[in-house]
Specification:
The chain is an alpha+beta fold. It has helices spanning 3-22, 35-57, 63-87, 93-119, 125-145, 152-157, 160-199, 204-245, 323-335, 354-358; strands spanning 256-259, 279-288, 299-301, 303-308, 312-320, 342-347, 350-352.
């Protein structure tokens, strides 16, 4: 076996070991009916792995290892991008266009990785990071636009659970896009500040080049701030919708005590939300004379408040199909320090006693 082949096999083994560690970060295809959307998200997630490796190449004593892992990550991302296009419905023209754009960026990144492997020096590290960043952005954006509905009847028949999955995916994608934009904005600011300091030491053509570069970076910074504002507005809309819709789903799996930072002044805790039909168990966390700040029950989701007699506020969490399911989640709330929390029951939107609920 040649030395080159051995290195390739060794690289793949190391990369697979690396992926086994971070596998929990990735979505599962089986959880999605819309395969094009799922593969686009996976493509973005693997591209993000490549992006992180590319960032490390510049400041590490052994950049080749990061190059190898980054390149394999990017190649896997390309495979998933192709799968997204394979499963894409003809109606998803805009998503297909954006996915092709992501693939072009991924191919450019692969060229940079290959160049470094061959030349043992980085041809253009910033261009590599830029290409991967854009690929992540576009792959996530495409995932939001892929449509797997073939006709109007299927759209009408879509279940409430499926709609929730879409909202959750949108939230995840826009949060990631916002994070990428924020990181890039920080990089731009640092680059501009560094170039401003260099201006005083340059003259002639070098000064002109620096000034032109600063102007270009400031223009990119301006456009990026506009994108951040747009994505932030969209994220708030999605989270507000999610906070309402999740309360309508009677399912223990939806409840969590780890969704920190979700509720805030812009995404308030829903007040007097519509109750699901039938028998529903919930957890009453507290009963107060005034509304509490959204951050007071940070992490608990889904959460709602009920105004009683225009004076008091009851805070309740989750929607559970059985008393046993609510009891399991009650323990999680107790563990967060809310020892006075207890289970309450509703039938067709009306509060009933636990004994009456258990007899149904």
């Amino acid at each position: 076996m040649s030395t080159v082949n051995f290195k390739i096999i060794f690289c793949v083994i190391i990369t697979l070991f690396f992926f086994s560690i971070v596998k929990a970060q990735f979505i599962s295809i089986v959880d999605y009916d819309n395969k094009a959307q799922a593969y686009a998200i996976l493509s973005a997630q693997y591209t993000k792995l490549a992006y992180l490796q590319a960032r490390k190449m510049e400041f590490n004593n052994n950049p080749q290892a990061y190059c190898d892992t980054g390149r394999v990550s990017n190649l896997i991302a390309l495979e998933y991008a192709d799968s997204a296009l394979y499963f894409a419905h003809d109606s998803s023209k805009k998503a297909i266009e954006i996915m092709y754009r992501a693939i072009n960026y991924q191919h450019k990144a692969n060229e940079f990785f290959t160049h470094f492997s061959n030349k043992k020096r980085l041809f253009n590290q910033k261009s590599l990071v830029f290409a991967l960043g854009n690929a992540i952005d576009d792959a996530y954006l495409a995932s939001l636009l892929f449509d797997d509905q073939e006709n109007e009847e299927e759209i009408i028949a879509e279940s409430k659970e499926r709609q929730i999955t879409r909202i959750e995916t949108d939230e995840f994608s826009f949060m990631t896009i916002k994070e990428i934009y924020g990181n890039r904005l920080t990089e731009l600011s640092n680059e501009i500040n560094a170039l401003e300091k260099q201006k005083s030491t340059k003259t002639g053509d070098e000064l002109v080049i620096i000034e032109n570069t600063i102007e270009q970076l400031k223009e990119e910074e301006k456009k990026l701030k506009e994108k951040i504002a747009t994505s932030s507005d969209k994220l708030l809309t999605i989270q507000s919708e999610l906070s309402e819709e999740m309360l309508k789903i009677v399912d223990e799996a939806i409840f969590t005590t780890e969704k920190t930072g979700f509720y805030n002044e812009q995404v308030p805790v829903p007040k007097n939300p519509e109750m699901p039909e039938g028998l529903v168990f919930r957890i009453q966390i507290g009963f107060f004379k005034k509304e509490l700040p959204e951050e007071h029950f940070d992490g608990i989701f889904p959460l709602a408040s009920e105004q009683i007699d225009n004076t008091y506020f009851r805070y309740i969490a989750g929607s559970f199909p059985t008393y046993e399911a609510a009891k399991r989640s009650l323990q999680k709330i107790n563990d967060k320090g809310y020892s006075d929390a207890f289970i309450v029951a509703y039938f067709n939107g009306k509060k009933i006693s636990i004994s009456e609920a258990l007899s149904k």
